[in-house]
């Protein structure tokens, strides 16, 4: 057997890449388009709960691309709500990339920064296709790592006049608003409650960290014509939310219709979200196979549970840039 090597990008390497907003968005949008064209294989995510007495679990995501990306991948990432008590991010993990033709491992990439970036990119791309072009007010609930990239990449596309953020802990939401204000170069307001954050906003993102389902986001607060993205692990929305929507879009119906977790789990179980009521998967819209927003009057919803394909596409782009810049490490495998 010949000598085999794999590339390794740790968290410091990923930071050193200094990916631009446009680089992140382009990589993830290309991956979504490939999914929409049927050039990928994706399996629904799986969950591993090591201890029911601990507020955390592992997500296992799997997928594969044909050429030109030509990579298969498995990401394992923890989702531990109480990690802030230990000074740790709530989501930490690893992406393993392999050759889909031989099964040979080709790369290991830090999954923490990658997950934050690709989640924000999927949110922003959803808004690009489903929100009003003139959206100027963002209401965002949640302050974890993915939340930062949601707001940053959304603002990159829309240049909001007003950004409101909310999180359960005052110190968390205040620090989040301060960081965003500094990085975006504009005021970001931390609100004391959900209602003052999301009511009347053009784009509403719910990325909360609830320990159990609770309808914190009221349907009555969503204005006509808004775009809503709920993706918390535990549902924070009312069952009536889907009733006011013109279009219901998901990232992958196969994984959204199964499992025990997810913001619209109850909507699937009651039939409010089904093959009949579903408008499209986001990849179909990005690939031009299904329409996105078609009028100013539409009130649209996008539920994304997180795609292995987005992880693989962004990981592939990271490795390409790392090769150009000479960043990362080369590990002997065999």
From TrEMBL:
<comment type="similarity">
    <text>Belongs to the ornithine cyclodeaminase/mu-crystallin family.</text>
</comment>
<dbReference type="Pfam" id="PF02423">
    <property type="entry name" value="OCD_Mu_crystall"/>
</dbReference>
<dbReference type="GO" id="GO:0005737">
    <property type="term" value="C:cytoplasm"/>
</dbReference>
<dbReference type="InterPro" id="IPR003462">
    <property type="entry name" value="ODC_Mu_crystall"/>
</dbReference>
<dbReference type="InterPro" id="IPR036291">
    <property type="entry name" value="NAD(P)-bd_dom_sf"/>
</dbReference>
<protein>
    <submittedName>
        <fullName>Ornithine cyclodeaminase family protein</fullName>
    </submittedName>
</protein>
<dbReference type="InterPro" id="IPR023401">
    <property type="entry name" value="ODC_N"/>
</dbReference>
